[in-house]
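Last lecture ended with a question: if I hand you only a sequence, what can you say about the shape of the protein? Today we answer it with a concrete record. The protein is Major facilitator superfamily (MFS) profile domain-containing protein. Below, first the input exactly as provided, then the predicted structure, then a couple of comments.
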Amino acid sequence: MEEKEKNYNEDLDDEDLIPTPPDGGWGWMVTFASLVCSFIVDGIGYTFGVLLPVFAEHFEESKGKVSLVGSLLFGVYLCSGPIASGLVNKFGCRPVTIAGSIIASVGFLLGSFAPNLNILILTYGVLGGNISNTHRLTKLQDTISFTIL
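The predicted structure:
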């Protein structure tokens, strides 16, 4: 018996002992991309407090009115989940994420050229917040499908 076990262990290579990932090894890349997406989306929302005094001074408005931009960014971002979920179910993760990235980029770019606070509320707050939710939903769904399935 000892001789049989010895022969079995000699036949195994190191490559035979390492399990093959079910996703071909791309699960870590998807997880890393989700982390980067979290940094970008959450960074936009959580750094608004730093931008608040700058926006108040630039637009010569009260901090209360300027804070509406950040509030709408988070409010629309959190309330648009059912819409983003329906789009992902109908079209899939990839097209929704790509469209969301393009629309959010355009919204934030237009917000940087906003001539007054009302335009900034519309572009940065509403448009940017509405589309940013697609990133969170699709990265969560991609991470779950690549790591669990």
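Comments.
1. Residues 1 and 19 are 27 Å apart (CA to CA).
2. The helical segments are 2-11, 14-17, 27-46, 48-59, 63-79, 81-91, 93-112, 117-148.
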